[in-house]
Design brief:
The protein is of the alpha/beta class. The protein is built from eleven helices and 13 strands. α3 packs antiparallel against α4. It binds 1-O-phosphono-alpha-D-glucopyranose (G1P). The site of 1-O-phosphono-alpha-D-glucopyranose has 14 residues, from β11. 1-O-phosphono-alpha-D-glucopyranose binds next to β11.
Length: 296
C-alpha cells in the first residue's frame, strides 16, 4: 500500500535582501500579499493537500513566523471584547492551521542544505517541499496531483512550468522525456540556473517537490554548486540520472502561479490576487483600468 504523505517542509531562512529595507527587522515571508502574509498561503496550500505536519526551516530574525502561527492572546481578547467576530476569526485562523515545527538552518548554505535540516523530523518517509516565493492559485490543482503521482510511481516528483527562454537562467531547468500521461514527464537531466542562452529546455522547476527520503542520502554527499551553495537541483539531478529511488518525474503545471520573490513580480501578484477578491475587486478593477489608461 502506498505511504500516506503527511509532512511538508518549508524553507524560510533566506535573508530577503531583495526587499530591503522592508526585511531589515522582519522576515520576507511575512510580507503581505493583499492582507495575508505570503507564508500563510503556502501553509494553507500544504494543509489543503492533506499535509498537516509542517516543518519550517528558519534562521535568525524569524520569530515573527512562529508568532504568526501561534495565539496572540492580547489581540484576541481585545477583538472579543469589541465583538469584532470577523477580525477575530481572521486572527485565530492561523493558530491551529497546521501542526507547526521549526528548526534553524544556522549558516544559510543553500536550498539543499536547508532541506537536509529536515532529515531528523521527516525520517524515512516521502515528504513535500514548498518554497515560499512561489504561490499557486488555490483554484488550480498541483500539490495533490504530485502527491498521488509520487505514490503511484514510487519516485520523486517535481513541479515544472514553461517559462520564456530569457527567464530560464533564474530557475532549475529540466531535460525530459514523455510518459504515457500528457502532463507527466520523466526527468533525464537537471541544471541549476543555466547561463543565458544555454538552457536545455524551457521547463523550469517551480517551488514544489514531493521527494523520496533517499534525497537526504544524496544531499549528504552533494558538493556546493551554483553560487557556492548546496543545491537541491544538483541532488535531484543525481537521483534522476542514476535512477535512485525510482528516479524523478515532473508534473507540468499549466495553472496560475504567482512569484513573490522579487519586487516587480510581488507587485504583480498583489494586483492579480486583489482584482479577483470579492471585497476589493469590484472597486479596484475600474480604478485600475482608469489608472492604466492615464499612463503615457
Ligand atoms: C530555487 C531553486 C530553483 C527553482 C526555484 C523556483 O531557486 O534553486 O531550482 O527553479 O527555486 O522558484 P531560488 O529562486 O530560491 O533562487
Amino acid at each position: 500500500m502506498a505511504f500516506q504523505i503527511t509532512k511538508a517542509v518549508i524553507p524560510a531562512a533566506g535573508l530577503g535582501t531583495r526587499f530591503l529595507p522592508a526585511t531589515k527587522a522582519m522576515p520576507k515571508e511575512m510580507l503581505p500579499v493583499v492582507d495575508k502574509p505570503a507564508i500563510q498561503y503556502v501553509v494553507e496550500e500544504a494543509v489543503a493537500a492533506g499535509l498537516h505536519d509542517v516543518l519550517m526551516i528558519t534562521g535568525r530574525n524569524k520569530n515573527a513566523l512562529e508568532n504568526h502561527f501561534d495565539r496572540m492572546t492580547e489581540l484576541e481578547a481585545t477583538l472579543e471584547e469589541k465583538g469584532d467576530v470577523d477580525r477575530l476569526k481572521k486572527v485565530e485562523y492561523s493558530n491551529d492551521l497546521a501542526d507547526m515545527h521549526y528548526v534553524r538552518q544556522g549558516d544559510p548554505r543553500g536550498l539543499g542544505h536547508a532541506v537536509l535540516r529536515a532529515h531528523m523530523h521527516v525520517g524515512r518517509e516521502p515528504f513535500a517541499v514548498l518554497l515560499g516565493d512561489d504561490l499557486i492559485d488555490e483554484r488550480d490543482v498541483l500539490l495533490s496531483r504530485m502527491i498521488s503521482e509520487q505514490a503511484a510511481r514510487n519516485a520523486s516528483v517535481i513541479a515544472l512550468l514553461e517559462v520564456e527562454p530569457e527567464a530560464a537562467h533564474l530557475y532549475g531547468i529540466a531535460t525530459v522525456e514523455a510518459t504515457e500521461t500528457e502532463d507527466i514527464v520523466r526527468i533525464t537531466d537537471l541544471v541549476e540556473k543555466p547561463v543565458n542562452g544555454t538552457a536545455p529546455s524551457n521547463l523550469a522547476i517551480i517551488g514544489r517537490y514531493v521527494l523520496q527520503p533517499e534525497v537526504f542520502d544524496v544531499l549528504e554527499r552533494t558538493q556546493p554548486g551554483k553560487g557556492g551553495e548546496i543545491q537541491l537541483t544538483d541532488a535531484l539531478q543525481v537521483m534522476a540520472s542514476e535512477n535512485i529511488a525510482g528516479g524523478v518525474y515532473g508534473v507540468v503545471f499549466r495553472g496560475r502561479r504567482y512569484d513573490t520573490g522579487d519586487r516587480l513580480d510581488y507587485i504583480k501578484a498583489i494586483v492579480q490576487l486583489a482584482v479577483e477578491r470579492h471585497d476589493l475587486g469590484p472597486e479596484l478593477r475600474p480604478w485600475l483600468k482608469q489608472f492604466a489608461s492615464s499612463l503615457d
